[in-house]
Design goal:
The protein is mainly alpha-helical. Helix content is 55%, strand content 10%. A hairpin with a 2-residue loop joins strand 2 (49-50) and strand 3.
């Protein structure tokens, strides 16, 4: 039988990673509001930290937004990839921004610290992985041929 490859049904690894990242950001955004409250949205306060990461209400709101996007877009392969590209761009920009803002409270609207910068760089890398993760493939047998191949080839 002749064989061709087609996208495999079910969720791809990149989709599950997008969902996990989305849920983590929802949890972090919610927990951040427990630390900071809802006032002084762009305050730069070194004492407001969540697990060593500096946060403020604006930073928390952005985490919630990213979490909502991840949980919303993971359901399709294309959506998960869009989420990956968004993470790459947003967190790449946040990393670059944080390099200059971390020691300059006048422009540090997100209340970042060095731990945040490393996390932002890591978020950009995870976004790239989600965006370019290979699609799962399965072998499709074409009727009318005699060629055989293992059934569990992926």
């Amino acid at each position: 039988m002749a064989h061709s490859t087609a996208p495999q049904s079910g969720r791809g690894t990149h989709q599950w990673i997008a969902l996990i990242v989305g849920v983590v950001f929802l949890l972090v955004g919610g927990a951040g509001f427990i630390v900071t409250g809802f006032s002084d949205v762009m305050e730069h306060d070194e004492s407001e930290r969540l697990l060593g990461f500096a946060v403020n209400p604006l930073h928390n709101a952005l985490h919630l937004l990213i979490g909502i996007l991840g949980v919303s877009l993971w359901v399709s392969s294309a959506g998960a990839r869009v989420f990956g590209w968004l993470l790459l761009v947003v967190y790449g920009a946040a990393f670059v921004y944080g390099l200059s803002a971390v020691n300059n409270p006048e422009i540090d609207y997100l209340n970042t610290n060095n731990a945040d910068n490393w996390l932002h760089l890591g978020g950009a890398v995870v976004g790239l992985l989600i965006a370019i993760w290979p699609a799962r493939r399965r072998v499709v047998e074409q009727p009318g041929t005699t060629e055989t191949m293992p059934r569990d080839v992926r």
